[in-house]
Design brief:
The chain has 408 residues and is an alpha/beta fold. 42% of the residues lie in helices and 13% in strands. It is built from 15 helices and 14 strands. Helix 5 crosses helix 9.
Length: 408
């Protein structure tokens, strides 16, 4: 009845942990939702109003996306990247996740995935009937691959087509890739294609975020959307920006789009124009500063000789590694932590790490984003009192996790 291709696939672990947390809460258990990652902030009011104003839009739109939206995205991205993108380079999809899946389906070659990688990259490669090669990375390199790592893989078979997925700021590590230039040299040398997943780029904590597209735009497909910076995960609007040099890839994604999702919801596309035409820098800066403060709070209160973590650099994740001989796997330690403390985390094995490494992903978004944003507008300093009042789940969850880690 079932194809071998899908028999061993499980639901996405990020969505699964959200469902598990809900079930436990319904049973009366106090759960700290550090497993599921989504923006805690509300969609900016002007964009919500634009959605309401366009609720009457009920016609199918072009499969590549509403032209005026693609023009807005192209202009916005060109200003950010200092590169001349046109509306023809943009594909609008029902979330960037669906577009990535279509890319896997059309690509013929080997997928290179640095560990850690977002949980859906590898399963999508399986569904696309592509072999994926996982590169184990190191903490001292912010959990990103080196040029040597990439070259070793490519030199084994230079005739293959290779597609590297590069996610910076990274889910699950919260780190930013700092060796982009050396990676770009490998890209140019071996005709590598890169999918640059920049869904968290607006939430990078530094002010000079760089993309691999700044170094090799002609070989880079940029993937991003509304979900993280705009608080609109449930709206399901993402996009690819495909350079002219990869025109064939864009054309085939459009063909598959016509046979699958047809077109993204019309009201949401019209509303999204407001997201890219208007200046939302105040909203974005507030979001970024809150996340930076919350992330640093978790980092400072959790790191120890039993818990190794890199300081967060963007997005809303940390990736602690527990030092213990008591547990055999990251899945086992996550189950124990959930049972003993109520803190929901995701095992590092879901992101490509060896199961034996006790690495987990921690999402620090279990707080009321609206209340914290209102407070930050008045006082952009996160005090202990503010944390206790407006982010009590973060405070209590980290405290429980720290005390538990001291006993292992």
């Amino acid at each position: 009845m079932l194809k071998d291709l899908v028999k061993n696939l499980e639901p996405s672990s990020t969505l699964r942990i959200n469902e598990i947390s809900k079930v436990l809460e319904e049973k009366g258990k106090n759960i700290f939702k550090f497993g599921f990652g989504q923006s805690p902030f509300e969609v900016p009011e002007s964009i919500v109003r634009e959605l309401q104003n366009n609720a009457h839009q009920n016609k199918y739109l072009p499969m590549q996306g509403l032209k005026s939206l693609r023009e807005s995205v192209a202009k916005y991205t060109s200003n950010k990247k200092n590169f001349d993108y046109k509306s023809a380079n943009v594909i609008i999809g029902p979330g960037s996740k669906e577009l990535m899946f279509l890319l896997h389906v059309i690509f013929d070659g080997e997928i290179i995935l640095p560990a850690p990688s977002w949980v859906s990259y590898a399963p999508q490669a399986i569904l696309g009937r592509n072999k994926s090669r996982i590169i184990q990375t190191k903490r001292e390199n912010n959990w990103f691959p080196t040029a040597d790592d990439l070259e070793k893989i490519i030199l084994k078979d230079k005739k293959k087509n290779y597609l590297l997925f590069l996610n910076s700021p990274n889910n699950p590590s919260g780190q930013i890739c700092e060796n982009l230039e050396e990676i770009s040299e490998i890209t140019k040398k071996y005709n590598l294609i890169i999918l640059s997943d920049e869904i968290y780029s607006e939430l990078a904590f530094n002010n000079d975020y760089k993309s691999i597209s700044n170094y090799c735009p002609e070989k880079t497909i940029i993937s991003t959307g509304l979900s993280k910076w705009c608080g609109a995960g449930g709206w399901r609007l993402g996009y690819f920006i495909v350079p002219n040099e990869l025109e064939m890839i864009k054309e085939k994604i459009n063909v598959l789009a016509s046979e699958t999702f047809s077109a993204v919801s019309a009201p949401i596309q019209y509303a999204a124009i407001k997201a890219y035409d208007e200046d939302h820098s105040i909203y974005i800066n507030l979001s970024r500063n809150i996340l930076k403060n919350i992330g640093n709070y978790v980092y400072e209160n959790l790191k120890s000789n039993k818990v190794l973590i890199n300081e967060p650099q963007g997005g809303f994740y940390l990736m602690p590694e527990f030092i213990s001989k008591k547990f055999k796997s990251s899945s086992e330690i996550c189950k124990e932590i959930l049972q003993q403390t109520g803190v929901a985390l995701l095992p590092g094995s879901d992101f490509g790490f060896d199961e034996k490494r006790l690495i987990v992903r921690l999402s620090f978004t279990d707080f009321d984003g609206k209340k914290l944003m209102d407070e930050f507008k008045k006082n952009p300093i996160l005090t202990k009192s503010t944390m206790n009042k407006l982010a009590p789940k973060i405070v209590a969850g980290v405290n429980k996790l720290r005390k538990w880690s001291e006993l292992i």
